[in-house]
Amino acid sequence: MSDLGFTPDEVMTIAAARALKNDDVCFVGIGAPSAACNVARLTHAPDITLIYESGTIGTAPDVLPLSIGDGELCDTAVTTVSVPEMFRYWLQGGRVTIGFLGAAQLDKFGNINTTVIGDYETPKTRLPGGGGAPEIASSSGEIYITMKQTKRGMVDKIDFFTSFGHGTGGKDRENLGIKTKGPTLLITDLAIWKPDSETKEFTVVSMHPGVTREQVQETCGWPVKFADQVEVTPAPDETELKTLRDLQARTKAAHEGTGRGKNKFGSQRDG
C-alpha cells in the first residue's frame, strides 16, 4: 500500500475498468482483465455484456473466476453457448466490441506472447499458450491490454507471436486484411499507453499518481515515447476502491481451501 492509500495494482485495475463503456460487449481474459471488467460492471457500466471463452454470455460473477471453466461463470450468465458458436457467431461475426487481454511478453506494437520464453523448440519456459487470444486479438473491434511493467515482460522483441497486435507498426494489420483496430489501449501499474496514430507504437499518455518518467523507462525493455502532454491518471475514488477490494475479498474467501488435495468444501480428498 502506498502513502496515497492505494496500490499500483489497484490503480491499474481501476484505470482499466474506467475505459469500458456501458454498451460494450467485452471478451474477457482471466486475471487482471477479469477484475477490471467486473469492477466496471459493478460501478459505472452495469449493462456491459461480459463474455468468457467457455461460452458464457452476460456473465455477472459474484467472485472472480479461477479459469474460463469456473462454474461461477455459467451459474451467473444470461446464457451459455457452445465454444464454436462463441467464436464463429459472436467473435468472428463482429459482435464483440472489446477484447481484454493480458500478456507474458509484449512489444511496443502490442504483439503478445503467451506461448514460450526462449526458443520454441527448446524453451526456457513453456507458458499456458494462446487459447482463444489469437482470435480475440484479430476479431474483436479493439483490444485492451493490461499487465505489470517489467523489462522481462515489456520487451523489444517477443520470443513468439501468439496474438497479433500491430506487427511491425504502421499499416501492418491493414495490409494483412485485418479490419479490426487491434490494440488501442495498454494499462500498466505505472501508466496508460495508446498507439501513435501513424507508427502504432505505444506511447505514454498518462502516468499514475506519484510515478516518474524514469520509473516508466526503467521497467520497460524499449525506449519509451511520451506524448507531448502527459496527464496524471485520476486517483481511484472511494467507491471504486471499495468495489474492487470487496470483490477481491469475496474471491479470496470463496477460493480458500480449494487448493491441491482439498475439495471445494475445504476438506481433504480421500486417497
From TrEMBL:
Segments of skewed composition (Basic and acidic residues): 248-259
Q: Which InterPro entries match?
A: CoA_trans_fam_I (IPR004165), NagB/RpiA_transferase-like (IPR037171)
Read off the Gene3D superfamilies from this record: Glutaconate Coenzyme A-transferase (3.40.1080.10)
Where is the segment annotated Disordered? 248-271
UniProt keyword annotations, A-Z: Transferase
Q: Which GO terms describe its molecular function?
A: CoA-transferase activity
Q: What is this protein called?
A: CoA-transferase subunit beta
